[in-house]
Amino acid sequence: MGTKVAKFGGTSLADSEQIRKVQLLINADSERRYIVPSAPGKRDASDRKITDLLYLCHAQVRQNVPIGEVFTIIADRYREIVRDLNVGIDLEPHLEEIEKKISEGASADYAASRGEFLNGLILSALLDYDFVDPYEIIFFDKYGRLDSERSQTETKNRLSNHNKAVIPGFYGCSHDGKIKTFPRGGSDITGAIVAKGVNADIYENWTDVSGLLMADPNIVENPRPIDTITYRELRELAYMGANVIHDEAIFPVREAGIPVKIKNTNKPDDPGTLIVQDAGPVTHTGTITGIAGRKDFTVITIEKALMNAIVGYGRRLLSVIEVNGISFEHMPSGIDTISLVIPDSQLENKLDNILKEIQSECAPDSIEVNPNMALIATVGRGMARTPGIASKLFGSLAEKKINVRMIDQGSSEINIIVGVETDDFENAQRAIYQSFTG
Ligand code: ASP
Q1: Fewest Cβ atoms closer than 10 Å to its Cβ: which of 10, 134, 166, 413?
Q2: Which atom of ligand 1 approaches the CA of 9 most closely?
Q3: Does residue 329 register a pLDDT over 90?
């Protein structure tokens, strides 16, 4: 029998109705043997996540505010779920203990982790799956980083004794034996560790969207879904702002070559997106996988005659940037010019100082500062070794009279980044999308 690990996000488990859908999905496929739940998320836009409420309780204790009122909201949500689902589990002793511990000053990590813990208990009772506490199998080192070797070994050993189990997401055990959580959204990481630990055939990540789209739906109308994407493409798109499962969060499965499938709990028949190491031979050369972009960059361009012949010029320039604690995103260069593309968030109040230091360290012939730049990445394994891609892309921008201020094509040939004025950000993405899909 095959093995699937299924991680369900907060909106998939927000109330009893959602949990019923999850139960049906799990019961429909006996290979879904390891289930990793998040805490109940928002039921609608105005609702609050259980995790946020738990953090709030912890903050209240620190400010000497009684937590009774907020904790009751949390407890009542779980009580309602248990009642509606008619699950044979008594959560009261757990709720009592959690409220007591948080009131007595338990850590923020402890408080937040209980959202997943309680949801895990409910699911294991509902599905009749074993409950395995991640506190016993997922470990962090003394620097607070995941101890992946130990976690993988413990997860593998422990889960080999359980044919079917629910493992709550988001937390594990710190080096000194305390509950410790991953960063927000970290149940994705738990799912990936479990998938690697049981050597799953696939890691299913169930959420509230039907996978990744080729472009931001707030910019491009009705963008097509992406059926298959490689980790490298995902990395490029995520880096440029595509809001998807983070590739770092799925590092363990990537390493193990286990594919990830993003699926929609509310539309399980939608195909979703498959994330793979290697998508095999490209059958559709000339196509792109997706487009993503980020705004708010400033470009500093330095010009110096015969720059190419001056030894150490680039190093001097970059050391100014380094000393000011700034990291740049791109550095396109010409014969006598170097441009630094820097996110505005990094520059905050530092620009004047940097310009002065560049002047004194590098004595350039001129320095030009261009704010308001946006970067757009067009990504696709189908672009590699295909003539005509760049001409199509730039042709589409020219047609819409969009001026391209920077071009950067990674040597991997799966990504072309263009810099445009912030005002052209949306139009440029629409033009590129249209030219490759229209
Ligand atoms: N419940 C946690 C959060 O809201 C972790 C997760 O859902 O992945 O961040």
Answers
A1: 413
A2: 7
A3: no
b/e code 246-258 from CB counts within 10 Å (16+ = b): bbebbbbbbebeb
38 CB near ligand 1 (under 6 Å): yes
Domains and CATH numbers, the chain: 4-276 (3.40.1160.10), 290-437 (3.30.2130.10)
Q: Is there an atom of ligand 1 within 6 Å of 54 CB?
A: no
Count the neighbouring beta carbons within 10 Å of the beta carbon of residue 303.
15
pTM confidence score: 0.85
Residue with tokens 């899909």: 437
Whose C-alpha lies nearest to ligand 1, atom 5? Answer: 185
Residue 169 CB less than 6 A away from ligand 1: yes
Pocket test for ligand 1, best of 184, 189, 194 (most atoms within 8 A of CB): 184
> Which tens digit of pLDDT belongs to each residue from 193-226?
999 999 999 999 999 999 999 999 999 999 999 9
Segment 104-126, tens digit of pLDDT: 999 999 999 999 999 999 999 99
CB of residue 185 inside a 6 A radius of ligand 1: yes
Which comes out higher in pLDDT, residue 133 or 240?
A: 133
